[in-house]
Amino acid sequence: xxxxxxxxxxxxxxxxxxxxxxxxxxxxxxxxxxxxxxxxxxxxxxxxxxxxxxxxxxxxxxxxxxxxxxxxxxxxxxxxxxxxxxxxxxxxxxxxxxxxxxxxxxxxxxxxxxxxxxxxxxxxxxxxxxxxxxxxxxxxxxxxxxxxxxxxxxxxxxxxxxxxxxxxxxxxxxxxxxxxxxxxxxxxxxxxxxxxxxxxxxxxxxxxxxxxxxxxxxxxxxxxxxxxxxxxxxxxxxxxxxxxxxxxxxxxxxxxxxxxxxxxxxxxxxxxxxxxxxxxxxxxxxxxxxxxxxxxxxxxxxxxxxxxxxxxxxxxxxxxxxxxxxxxxxxxxxxxxxxxxxxxxxxxxxxxxxxxxxxxxxxxxxxxxxxxxxxxxxxxxxxxxxxxxxxxxxxxxxxxxxxxxxxxxxxxxxxxxxxxxxxxxxxxxxxxxxxxxxxxxxxxxxxxxxxxxxxxxxxxxxxxxxxxxxxxxxxxxxxxxxxxxxxxx
Amino acid sequence: xxxxxxxxxxxxxxxxxxxxxxxxxxxxxxxxxxxxxxxxxxxxxxxxxxxxxxxxxxxxxxxxxxxxxxxxxxxxxxxxxxxxxxxxxxxxxxxxxxxxxxxxxxxxxxxxxxxxxxxxxxxxxxxxxxxxxxxxxxxxxxxxxxxxxxxxxxxxxxxxxxxxxxxxxxxxxxxxxxxxxxxxxxxxxxxxxxxxxxxxxxxxxxxxxxxxxxxxxxxxxxxxxxxxxxxxxxxxxxxxxxxxxxxxxxxxxxxxxxxxxxxxxxxxxxxxxxxxxxxxxxxxxxxxxxxxxxxxxxxxxxxxxxxxxxxxxxxxxxxxxxxxxxxxxxxxxxxxxxxxxxxxxxxxxxxxxxxxxxxxxxxxxxxxxxxxxxxxxxxxxxxxxxxxxxxxxxxxxxxxxxxxxxxxxxxxxxxxxxxxxxxxxxxxxxxxxxxxxx
Lengths: 489, 438
Fold this sequence. Notes:
The complex is a heterodimer of chains A (489) and B (438).
Chain A: H1 7-15, E1 66-75, E2 81-90, E3 93-98, E4 108-111, E5 116-119, E6 121-126, H2 155-161, E7 165-170, E8 178-186, E9 203-208, H3 211-214, H4 232-262, H5 280-286, E10 290-296, H6 299-312, E11 316-321, H7 329-335, E12 338-341, H8 359-365, E13 370-372, H9 377-380, H10 383-394, H11 398-403, H12 407-413, E14 430-433, E15 444-449, E16 452-456, H13 463-473
Parallel strand pairs in A: 1-4, 1-5, 6-7, 9-10, 10-11, 11-12, 12-13
Antiparallel strand pairs in A: 1-2, 2-3, 5-14, 7-8, 8-9, 14-15, 15-16
Chain B: H1 2-12, H2 19-28, E1 35-42, E2 50-58, E3 61-66, E4 76-79, E5 84-87, E6 89-94, H3 132-137, E7 141-146, E8 153-161, H4 167-170, E9 171-181, H5 196-232, H6 243-252, E10 258-262, H7 265-278, E11 282-286, H8 294-299, E12 304-306, H9 321-331, E13 336-338, H10 349-357, H11 363-368, H12 372-377, E14 395-398, E15 409-414, E16 417-418, H13 424-433
Parallel strand pairs in B: 1-4, 1-5, 6-7, 9-10, 10-11, 11-12, 12-13
Antiparallel strand pairs in B: 1-2, 2-3, 5-14, 7-8, 8-9, 14-15, 15-16
Helix pairs in contact in B: 5-6, 9-10
């Protein structure tokens, strides 16, 4: 695993005042951050002017060795619903689930009476916490990495947590054919950026097809030349050329390895080929070490991409958006390619004109692994409502709809062994709602990542708290407003 | 009853075509048979729910509704067992009919050049054949405000029913309100955002310029309206006709409201100051910081069109601020109605309201805010917004709460006519669902 555990990001976090205590801790943290003292009461310390997001210096939640969520309705995501069930968490993993779970003495107990617990939501397509999204200057930029531009983001990650999201896949944009290397993150809000990486998640590479790549909706500035390709045909050529170069590069390395192994004692070692940072990730894909995630809208461009994959001997892990996937459910299912789509977003560009809100349900009916993603910090925080729309439009069952934001995206990202359902042995990534997640009045009460409560509405700054604070600060004024002249800002 | 309804409508509407006549015209060609939905749970919105109730629609209007209603002879009967009947939903801010595919040149018809375009009527540009409109109405939205945007005065918003052969037929209120965007800093949501001090100063200056220009424009319009009134009263003299100024006359007389697009508390204070200076009737729209002035707005009875709630707050604001502010306003006594501010996404009106019910908005008030409150704010509560005898038969029949995304719609009526469930999505769905599996 080569995911970044670099000191640069860590020192950035330290510079931001984020928990200098972590400076001495290992840079790559995954569920093993040292426990902190229990957080101090928050409300009194929070000035009304900065109440939106808890400061990044806020004490991180303690890692309880034993946590139990009791007497809750548990939507497992894998094996139905358990009424009045208990989830026991040990060292950040789910140790027991069911109706006959004994809560050991000393466990931190979260009373789930009247609450619904679902697997932490997985948003398989986000751009949260990125300093930059598109390299885009060349058609092939597989050398650039999302992990290099991850920032200590406050709002985006926090609000996603507040919507029950625990894992996101962050991608480059879709400005060019091969955009760059993606990262899978766990939303451990408040910890240094390096602690966000989902250790053990498969590597990913973002591809893009269609209008964004063709730049048909983003005219270049006057005097700036158009970038090749300008057509879908050109996009295919770029892909085939890149993988052809990757094959040649791979052969060079194979030849080198063969030669090196054949070296006799005393003979000089052969010189290795020059490392090519752009082709390395493509070789990863050819050798099945990295997942290809491909932004696409139209049916024919997805068929084209699957054709390229077939010719070069790899599988497309997922089409991102895939709004016309319903037209080619047979081909997608046969190729084992998942689709991560929108619930009902359409008509914003020509290639979204044949998008239908029944897409997810219809593809699922044909055996495609389907997930619902956000592609935006805003949609991400209400992905549970987006999933409910697949029941409304395509007639998906509630369980199926739930899987589209939990187990299915986990499968597409290759992390379903670790998260995505409430099963013994999996990471305790959980969202606790005050009602059924698909019901209109439901909201997230607590979100746990690795068994630790990273979002808790009881402690969160809310609008209601803010209004109350302002009422207390200044006595209520009369009905007339204090008017300023002409409303200058 | 029908006669008095016509009189009430005529008094309210300065319409190109009389809307009640439109209903009569449209339904005249239809068989006169009534439609009766029987044994359903009726949710009239203005009164208690009626279990096992019946509603009768005839000639585009609600003829009878309640528990002991007899189904008229010859009526088409719909069995409402297990179903719920609600009034059609009203979206108080959209671009419906003015937008089709956003990114395609010509696909968006909402932004006129120039800063002052009060004479632009949204209604005349509404495309009744829009492929988007059917996808919106099958989700229960039967009526919507649609309007242009941009500049300072964007033009007249129209209240339309989402079915009709021509824009004029669709029109409920051809001139529902004058859309005015309160001058604002555009890059970054709030003052002092990105762009540094220099940029912020330059932008503040631009905001001041626009605000002065708006005040000057309103002063001219006030003078124009006064001259017009004096000429009408017999004063000698003449007045050169100005179409923009003519459009402003009903606004300056307080007959037509100003729809003030605002966001921050500062902008709201500015809008109130302008309303005071020129005695304007105003409706705030957007207004996501209106909770800071909730008591003032309640005391002054200024309604707020809230939403879209599918929007992110600033980092410095509470995470739930956008979801929760409609509830905070309603609790303070402000009359609210929801908007989506959208084209295609207008079908998510009820789900916008649903997000707020999770954060403090009473579910009954949420329902009112997409029905009767909207009708009241737009001045059509005598004809729209609830299930009452004599009102326009915009009616939806559902399997449950329309705010719940899992709910299905079974029947939709606009002006008493059954709305077909076939839209672009449906056609493609059926086409590709029929594709052989191998």
